[in-house]
Design brief:
single chain, mainly beta, Immunoglobulin-like, 47 strands
């Protein structure tokens, strides 16, 4: 059977290190060839990650039972490795990110024939951290790793060895139940105990015949070795502060007790190896621990109490994990109708089939299934509310009252807020159906409906045009004609019309927007007033009128358009015989706004406003007033562009 010998130096370190240190040692061996008594010796060294590099080469000192130096054994260094931060004394804990430990294994073969009294193999080195709290002046003490090959080892022994790396971190306020995992391939009896630590290089400790002051004593001193004195209340059996005392079960190797203070502490763990009731070797572990508040997997999720908008998107819900120290995540969205209502995303989205109460479960997955943490919450999923309203009523300003009614489905706890604006008879109203609304001025008015349901809300708005129908509707301008002439009548702004007059005339149609009338030849030097009742599409009404002046000697104006484009042709509005004495003229646009006027018109209007700016092409209306009487009222078209 192939036999292996291991030497381990175990290190755990302070959470805050400004310089690197070696922090422990353990040595073991295994038989490579029983015929030649060839052993493989392995040394595993631990240091904090902030140290200088591991020693490239080192030597072990081998002594016989009389402390005669048999040889110095060169060791070959392996590849350094970083210990996982998840390696702690609690199965579900994770060490803080400031803690980092590295290890390396040195190995070599050596042939040692059976010898009376056997052999001692040793290695010594400084330096420990000055932050160790259970050793006074800890920086003055190094460490010694040592192992013994039994007397007359004709069977080629395998020493006890660690089966797995010991955790560098213990968790405060968490009861220890941590097994020191040691194996012996020969089946020898093992007994565990807490023991003293051996001093080594870099300090004042040593034996009468050997000094360990140098950083790396070469060769390492033979036994007996000086033990390191613990400081204060601490000793080998009470190495660090606890609320329940520390103990190491001699049979199972389970370390128990409850540490209760943060700090850096060292302990000695010895595993005695017995064969046929006789002690043949001791596995000695020099072990430094960081006692810290460990990190555990904790499940948490954002709830509607924390994010009041979480349930405001209707059946589509965004989930957010706030779990800490989780390796993976699992969600069960509580939809009992299907099995696929799960996700392993950290922040998933789920669309529910219908409103209702759902129990959502979120699992933060830890180092193992036993370390998982679960949290549940109940969600009241509702359809998203989309407010809308319809309105009824006349929108003409002089006779308007608007009724509003919300449309759609709303939860029972919905709250309504209407905003009609400061110009309305009601500015803001908190009820489902408002009374009739009126505004003080015409124009566009924005009406807003906000619906709050639970912690959510949505809004809807619309513009209502309250128009001044009295300004938008009307009839064409007054006219002057001869007796018996035909008069064209024009109206605008509505959808239905009715024409009538104050004197008997023959109307072509009373119900057309534009119609005509034949003036009676018996009417001369008189005025006929025509009326039009104009009605809008929503029932607004206006009565407007125009006058026709019947003059027997009237000469009609020859032109009803002009082209003020500076081409020398028809550039001015020329009234001709219609303005024999330079009467007053007033010109308005189609909306009734004054654009130009003159008290003594000289046929010189060239299509500009009172400010001298050119007016746009279009139809304009004019009133000609002679001797304080309106003698003519008609329309003229301004056209600047008359060709390509």
């Amino acid at each position: 059977m192939k036999k292996i010998l291991y030497i381990l130096v175990f290190l755990a370190f302070s959470t805050v290190m400004k310089s690197g240190h070696i922090v422990g040692a353990h040595m073991s061996y295994g038989c490579e060839n029983s015929l030649t008594n060839t052993y493989r010796v392995n040394l595993k060294v631990y240091r904090d990650c902030f140290s200088l590099s591991f020693d490239i080469a080192l030597k072990l000192a081998i002594y016989d039972s009389l402390n005669n130096l048999v040889m110095e054994l060169p060791m070959q260094r392996g590849t350094p490795k970083t210990i996982s931060p998840e390696l702690t004394t609690h199965p579900c804990a994770i060490s803080p990110p400031t803690i980092c430990v590295q290890s390396v294994v040195y190995t070599s073969l050596v042939q040692l024939p059976p010898k009376q009294g056997g052999y001692h193999i040793s290695w010594q080195r400084c330096c420990r951290s000055s932050t160790i709290q259970n050793i006074s002046g800890s920086a003055n003490y190094g460490l010694t790793a040592t192992v013994r090959i039994p007397s007359m080892d004709t069977l080629c022994n395998n020493s006890a060895s660690l089966a797995s790396t010991i955790a560098p971190v213990i968790c405060i306020n968490s009861p220890l139940n941590y097994k020191i995992d040691v194996i012996d391939h020969d089946g020898d009896s093992l007994s565990f105990k807490l023991c003293d630590l051996y001093a080594g290089g870099g300090g004042t400790a040593g034996t009468a015949n050997c000094s360990t002051i140098s950083t790396i004593p070469s060769p390492a001193c033979p036994p007996p070795y000086v033990t390191i004195p613990f400081g204060g209340i601490y000793n080998a059996q009470n190495p660090f502060p606890t609320s329940i005392p520390i103990s190491l079960d001699p049979v199972t190797g389970i370390l128990s007790g409850t540490p209760n203070q943060q700090g850096v502490y060292v302990i000695g763990i010895c595993v005695d190896e017995f064969r046929d009731g006789k002690l043949i070797n001791t596995l000695r572990i020099d072990y430094q621990l960081n006692s810290v508040s460990c990190l555990y997997t904790k499940s948490d999720l954002v709830t509607p109490l924390e994010d009041t908008t979480m349930l405001c998107n209707g059946l589509e819900v965004d989930f957010t994990s706030e779990s800490i120290n989780a390796r993976k995540y699992f969600w069960d969205f509580g939809d009992t109708n299907i099995l696929s209502d799960t996700s392993r995303l950290i922040n998933p989205i789920y669309v529910y089939p219908k409103p209702g109460l759902y129990i959502v479960k979120h699992v933060a997955i830890g180092k193992s299934s036993a370390c998982n943490d679960t949290v549940s919450t109940v969600l009241n999923v509702v359809n998203e509310v989309f407010p809308e309203f319809i309105w009824f009523g006349k929108t003409c300003f002089d006779n308007h009252e608007i009724e509003f009614y919300p449309q759609g489905e709303y939860p029972n706890n919905s709250e309504f807020r209407w905003i009609f604006g400061s110009d309305a008879n009601i500015d803001t109203l908190y009820q489902r159906i408002p009374p009739k609304i009126k505004w003080n001025n015409p124009g566009f008015h924005t009406v807003q409906l906000r619906v709050d349901y639970g912690t959510c809300h949505n809004e809807y708005s619309a513009n209502i045009n309250i128009f001044d129908f009295q300004k938008l509707a009307g009839v064409g301008p007054n006219q002057t004609v001869k007796p018996g002439a035909k008069v064209n009548l024009e109206a605008f702004g509505g959808v239905s019309y009715y024409w009538f007059s104050d004197k008997p005339v023959k109307l072509a149609s009373r119900f057309s927007q534009n119609t005509s009338a034949i003036m009676s030849s018996t009417i001369t030097n008189d005025t006929v007033t025509f009326y039009a009742r104009i009605i809008s599409k929503d029932g607004c009404e206006k009565l407007d009128s125009m006058q026709v002046f019947v003059i027997s000697n009237f000469e009609p104006v020859p032109f009803n358009f002009f082209t003020p484009n500076d081409d020398g042709l028809n550039d001015f509005f020329e009234l001709g015989n219609g303005n024999p004495e330079g009467c007053a003229i007033t010109i308005i646009n189609r909306w009734g706004t004054l654009v130009w006027e003159s008290e003594n018109y000289q046929n010189d209007w060239e299509g500009k406003n009172l400010g001298g700016d050119e007016l746009p092409d279009g139809t304009y209306y004019y009133f000609l007033k002679c001797n304080d009487e309106i003698v003519y009222k008609s329309a003229v078209t301004l056209v600047r562009k008359t060709g390509n």
